[in-house]
């Protein structure tokens, strides 16, 4: 059975002595940021867990990580940690990211009331579609007479005979 290496211990060692790993310091920083974002997106993360992450990372680092969140990720986090906030579903992305930092910093979520649900926009009433069956050509009645013009004589056949 192979032994598994403690990844956190490796990351600590790399970050503690970056001069020993000059070629991978940037990659280690990207990996650490990706791990923090993955933890933020974890479904099991609670508000107390978010606040613990904030305490461990500090305000500046946590804010930089929150700035890397996409709009959808930030909206999901605000909806999970502050579902009753009236601006949660309509706010711009920068407000959502700031709200995550504020909640992590110790602010309480909006209290009271029901969860705000934004009504789904209804589809605009479409103009009635004109169907071929309803057109005058399909409603015409046969009067017993042929109203088509007589066939034209083909000029190419007339030239060949002359």
Automatic annotation (TrEMBL):
<feature type="region of interest" description="Disordered">
    <location>
        <begin position="137"/>
        <end position="162"/>
    </location>
</feature>
<protein>
    <submittedName>
        <fullName>Uncharacterized protein</fullName>
    </submittedName>
</protein>
<feature type="compositionally biased region" description="Basic and acidic residues">
    <location>
        <begin position="143"/>
        <end position="153"/>
    </location>
</feature>
């Amino acid at each position: 059975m192979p032994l598994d290496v403690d990844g956190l211990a490796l990351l600590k060692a790399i970050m503690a002595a970056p001069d020993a790993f000059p070629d991978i310091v940037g990659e280690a920083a990207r990996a650490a940021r990706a791990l923090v974002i993955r933890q933020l997106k974890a479904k099991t993360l609670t508000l107390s867990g978010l606040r613990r992450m904030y305490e461990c990372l500090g305000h500046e680092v946590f804010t930089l990580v929150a700035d890397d969140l996409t709009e959808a990720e930030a909206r999901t986090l605000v909806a999970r940690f502050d579902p009753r906030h009236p601006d949660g579903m309509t706010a711009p992305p920068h407000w959502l990211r700031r709200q995550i930092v504020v909640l992590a910093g110790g602010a309480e979520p909006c209290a009271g009331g029901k969860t705000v649900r934004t009504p789904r926009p209804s589809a605009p009433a479409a103009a009635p579609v004109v169907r071929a069956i309803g057109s005058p050509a399909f409603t015409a009645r046969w009067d017993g007479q042929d109203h088509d013009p007589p066939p034209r004589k083909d000029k190419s056949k007339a030239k060949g005979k002359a």
